[in-house]
Amino acid sequence: MKIKHVSIKQETNPVQVLDCSVSDGYRQGPGGTLADVDIDFQSDRRQEVKEYLERRYNINGKQRVFSAGTLTTLKIKAAIKDVARVHRVPLNIVNYITSIFDDDKMTWTDLFKLAFTNKKVKKFITDYPQVIEDIRPLMGQPRSGSIHASAILITPEQKDGEEMECFDYTPLKKVDDVLVSELDGYSLDEVGLLKNDCLGIKELSKIQSTINECNRVYDAGLRFDDIVKGGLDDEKTYRLLSDGFTQNVFQFSSKGMTKFLMDMKPTNIHDLIAANALYRPATLESGSAEKYLLCKCGDVAPVYLWGTYNALKDSCGQLTFQESLIQIAREVGNFSMGDGVNLMKLISKKRIDKIHAMKEKFMQGAKERGCPKEDAVQIWDMIESGGSYLFNKCISGGETIYRPHGGRWKPTIGEMYRIRHDRQYARRTGHADLYSKYNRKGYGIGFSLNEDERLVKNRIEDIRYVGERPLYRITLEDGRTLDVTANHKHPTQRGEVRTDCLVTGEDYMYVNIGYIQQDTNYRFTDKGCLNDDMYHDNYGVGNYELNSRPGHSGFVEKPESEYVRLEYYRKHLMLEACARCGKRNCRLEVHHINGDHSQCGENFDNLTTLCASCHKKEHYRMGRRKMGEHGLYTELRKVVSVSYIGYGEVYDVEMSAPNHSFVTAGGMVTCNSHATAYAITSYTGAWLKANYPTAFYTVALQWADDKEIPALMSEMEQCSSAMIVPPDVNVSEAQFFTDYATNEIFWSLTRIKMLGKKAVDYIIEERERNGVFLTIENFIFRIFRYKLKKYEFWDDPDNAEESTRVPVNARHVKNMVLAGCFDNIEKVKSVTDRYDILSRAARELGFELADKDFPDELISKHYFWSMQQIAVSGIGSIDYRRIFDSSDLKAKVKGKASYMELRRAFDSDNEGKRIVVCATVSEAEEKAYKDKMTGEQKKFAKITLQQNNDMMELVCWSDFLQNYPAPIGSLKNKVIIVSVVIKYSDYSGANSLTTYKSSLIQVM
């Protein structure tokens, strides 16, 4: 905003003021340059901010606004390729040698270390010594320039009384009509120019969308700044957060943070700021977070050392904020404000020599102020230990996140951030599609280290630009490197360790070694070794016996053994085509239908023939985990050096809970980063949720991933009058549509499987042009009136002309019926009535329903149709109580356990109760552990149960698994009824379910 007028008021009475000058404290670098100014904007409007700055300051024909440039330096691969081209080294040899380098950040010395272990590299150095000699002075030199991801500079209008333009301060160039500095950010700092980092934040876009929706529907007249200026004291908002309804609230939606808020019971904005600052690994490890909670809840009185009350009164005596540290240094140690800022920076950078000098000054100042020596010592220790976790932990923008997908071009962290927040850059580099994808769906998937020391797929929640910071390079014994800030943490053999606390030669870091081929063959006997329990169980494995008898030559035939029968089927009875897809002339495999490889079944009815693709899909359906779920393998590598490499752009990378780590393209595992707390933004989102829940959830669903929707739906039912209803062909849109009169949010048509944007637009266009659809026959007649043929079955493909003229096909109709799109116009009273709609649709399209797709014994089952609806659309409600009431298990558990819903099982009053639950298995995983008493290897299983929108973990112990012969993995996506006991889990901080020895189970 522009300041138009300043008025001066003079006080007649003298007023005592505190020192408020920071002098050069916030200046950085040897030249005392200004720190950056970081301002957050909506991610979808950052470009407008840049255009505004240009209009505002580029006036009177003078250019004052430009973007900062960055320089790309020559690394070893590019240097070798460029120099080898001059020396006419064959291209195939150069490409082969450079492909050996796993890390492009290798130094010239690292090249010779690699040659010591790699004969090919050694031979290349010997054959082309001049190439190796010539690359030495070139490495690290600027190769090309580009535009900074977010930095925009505005030069002063005058200097020494003369009119100035940006060209008078620094050399500039034009890149695709964008004015960019020839110098990089470090050089511009030395010039003394103020750099503005205009950051695009997705959360601000979501909040503004919610505000716009509230103003459109309720005529509320809301503005973001009005909410912020409204006192930040809305009781309803704090009650909502205290009750744990934090889904889709910025910074507060993780399980751990939700529990932290429920324990804290926040009542004001200071509590939210403290929650954001305290709920981090360093503060949790130091005990500050727990002490704060105890004081906040009144269990323990806060303790304030001499002179610290004013600084720590809002954080219950815990050093939480940078400002508090500076204030203590001033009020206790008699520091100036500038010295306090310097102290804060020195502690964060571990400048031991200068910290000791500051300590003497602090102790002397405390003595002059009258602080007791014992208190002064404790205060200094608190400052010294606390200063290390009051700062962000960041990683170099030149690093690349290891992703599960392929592709030759792998963007760095800096490039990913810039593509998402700079549309012009994305277009200029040919990645406009990624700009749209990143802003619509986020950054995608990376890998995180789990508790089993495996790398599993995990979502990249956000990447935030932090600025330029000192960088350190960690080098491992195998040559891998990682560039991070001094206070960034890494998983090691002794837990999470900061960069500046790594001990070279002693500490080991995790590295990705990829997928290791496993032995998946099934063994019928216990000869040699048993089956790998990740793929096969050992329940049906027999004892090994010699296949011969004394006095008889040759082997004894065992025609009834399962191995012999399997081989007989493989040689004589296998089909000539896949039994599922009908594919011929491909690799065919034998599949065990029930998953038990120890039994071929009577008349070989447990065996079938499948192609390799269908065989794999069938195993996935039965519970086998994919590579990304099973995890990539890791090994520990020794840290050999940690060296300072200069300043560089750094970014915060945030991964989804609970595995807060990620893997770089170089294979090194490092910890999640967190940016500065956005407590006011969090409050604004929570305020909208508390006061306008229907509008809030409408926008949240538009932005949500598929995995986030069940939790949103569950919370919506508990804390608001809004509710999600199945799609309606006459109401639903391409996005979620809300009827604010009834607070019903209609499911999006595009979230139905196979139904793409073109098909949905075609249906909506027909509905708007010719009115609502009346029946399923009316829908098919109007949509398919231009079709050239009748269908033969649901998956009968269209030719190119048919697809162009009518983008809707028979599969779309089937999935729409199963999703419930026609329930209202057909006046469906029960979900089982959808079979009649499907039959009529099939007849209209030219064929009859196949019995194998809709078996007679299932079409009358309520849960069958509910599960079909969930499978094709992601929404649906199964009446689990009805399933339990009609099951055989109900009579067996009568008097031993009572039925309970998962939602009630979370209640702490129900801990210790034996109950029966009926739910769908969404995840199932078998694990092994060593019994501490007997030393015996035993199994247990973790199962995630889902009851519509509620989810809970079930742990099955070995005593129960011994009585349940089927593989646990085969339960995935099936409905089960099981008797369990409710127990509190210290790990999750909530109730969970466990089996007991006599637990009963029934699979539906």
Concise summary:
The chain has 38 helices and 30 strands. The chain is α+β, with helices and mostly antiparallel strands and 1004 residues long.
Could you outline the blueprint of secondary structure elements for this entry?
Blueprint: E1 37-42, H1 46-57, E2 65-73, H2 76-86, H3 91-100, H4 108-117, H5 119-127, H6 129-138, E3 142-154, E4 158-159, E5 162-163, E6 172-175, E7 178-184, H7 185-191, E8 195-201, H8 202-218, H9 224-228, H10 235-242, H11 255-264, H12 269-278, H13 281-286, H14 288-296, H15 309-312, H16 322-331, H17 337-348, H18 352-369, H19 373-386, E9 395-396, H20 413-421, H21 423-428, H22 432-441, E10 445-449, E11 455-476, E12 481-484, E13 489-492, E14 495-498, E15 508-514, H23 562-573, E16 588-592, E17 607-611, H24 612-621, H25 627-630, E18 633-655, E19 661-663, E20 669-671, H26 679-691, H27 693-703, H28 709-719, E21 723-725, E22 737-739, E23 744-746, H29 757-770, H30 776-783, H31 800-805, H32 810-819, H33 834-845, H34 862-873, H35 880-885, H36 889-893, E24 898-899, H37 902-905, E25 914-930, E26 937-947, E27 950-956, H38 958-961, E28 975-985, E29 990-994, E30 1001-1003
Parallel strand pairs: 1-8, 2-7, 21-23, 24-25, 27-29
Antiparallel strand pairs: 2-3, 3-8, 4-5, 6-7, 9-18, 10-11, 11-12, 11-18, 13-14, 15-18, 16-17, 19-20, 22-23, 25-26, 25-28, 26-27, 28-29, 28-30
Helix pairs in contact: 2-3, 2-6, 4-5, 8-26, 8-27, 10-26, 12-26, 16-17, 18-19, 20-22, 26-27, 30-33, 32-33, 32-34
